[in-house]
Amino acid sequence: MSEPSRIHAPDGVAPATQYSHVVSAAGRLVAVSGQLALDEHGELVGEGDPAAQARQVFENLRRCLAAAGAGFEHVVKLTCFVTDTAHLPAIRAARAAHIPDDRLPASSAVQVAALVAPQFLMEIEALAVVGD
Q1: Inter-residue contact 54 to 91 (CB < 8 Å)
Q2: How far apart are CA 41 and CA 89, in angstroms?
Q3: Please, what is the average pLDDT of the chain?
Q4: Under a CB-based contact definition with an 8 Å cutoff, are residues 121 and 37 in contact?
Q5: How many Å apart are CA 20 and CA 4, to the nearest integer?
Q6: How many whole angstroms separate alpha carbon 54 and alpha carbon 36?
Q7: pLDDT in tens, 81-99
Q8: Does the global pTM surpass 0.90?
Q9: To the nearest 10°, the Cα dihedral for 95, 101, 106, 112?
């Protein structure tokens, strides 16, 4: 796989600061289902604590990516579902622990009325591209 190409400010589009508008790469696609703040035993981590939940979600993403032979350096797209956009700073902080600012993936954030259960504050899915 070649290094993913990131475009932060395509012509005629306002520059992005927290994500890349466009990321392109060639290779094997890895799709990671939305991850919740559950530990390896299926127990909620960080009830009512967006920072703790975000850290657990990114740890789960890391483990899922690794199982497919990928890492955060291969992530080209993140989709974040949050019950309150006030949780986005916690997500950005957890993301920063795994993905440097010069490698930000394309990203979408969607506020939803609810997730699968009320104690979950966020769910994040990832798309990655790895070489073979």
Answers
A1: yes
A2: 27
A3: 95
A4: yes
A5: 11
A6: 9
A7: 999 999 999 999 999 999 9
A8: yes
A9: 40
Assess whether pLDDT exceeds 80 at residue 132. no
Per-residue pLDDT, 2: 59
For CA atoms 6, 76, 116, 53, the dihedral sign is: negative
Q: Letter for the amino acid at 109?
A: A
Specify the 3-state DSSP secondary structure of 109.
strand
Q: Residue 41: is it exposed, middle or buried by C-beta count within 10 angstroms (0-12/13-18/19+)? A: exposed
What the block records as the tokens of 126 is: 């990832």
Angstrom distance (rounded) from CA 26 to CA 75: 12
Pairwise CA distance, residues 61 & 72, whole Å: 9
Q: What span, in angstroms and rounded, lies between the C-alpha atoms of 111 and 95? A: 18
* pLDDT at residue number 17: 86
Pick from 105, 24, 26, 30: which is nearest to 65 by CA? 30
Tokens of 43: 């127990």
